[in-house]
Write a structure and sequence with these properties.
Layout (H helix, E strand, L loop, with lengths): L3 H42 L4 H8 L3 H8 L7 H11 L3 H5 L15
Length: about 110
């Protein structure tokens, strides 16, 4: 015998899980977009074109373009290269950015 309560419970759980994943993904996207905006502002304040920054960072202009358009999540190596290219400390690039909130469903520590 199959209980209808079991499948309904899983459906509710799947709905909450899906909603949770969507919320986390949205927060992650917002963080990447905020990073991109910060990068553009700092590059412009330094008086550099994207190509000039790419040259300073020893990366292709496409890497800078992806970072500035929030098309890719920047990795630590790129963040450090950007800071070197902009001649700033990592804190200057990352200040004001907030990581996604921890949620009750998030069991990572």
């Amino acid at each position: 015998m199959t209980s209808s309560h079991g499948s309904a419970g899983r459906g509710d759980e799947d709905g909450r899980s899906s909603s949770f994943r969507l919320q986390v993904a949205s927060e992650r996207i917002a963080l990447i977009q905020a990073f991109a905006a910060q990068l553009v502002a700092l590059r412009q304040a330094a008086g550099l074109s994207a190509s000039e920054l790419a040259e300073r960072c020893h990366v292709s202009p496409g890497v800078i373009e992806k970072a500035e358009r929030a098309r890719a999540e920047p990795r630590l190596v790129l963040i450090l290269a950007l800071c070197e290219g902009l001649r700033i400390a990592p804190n200057d690039l990352l200040s004001g950015l907030r990581p996604p909130k921890r949620h009750s469903n998030d069991h990572t520590r």
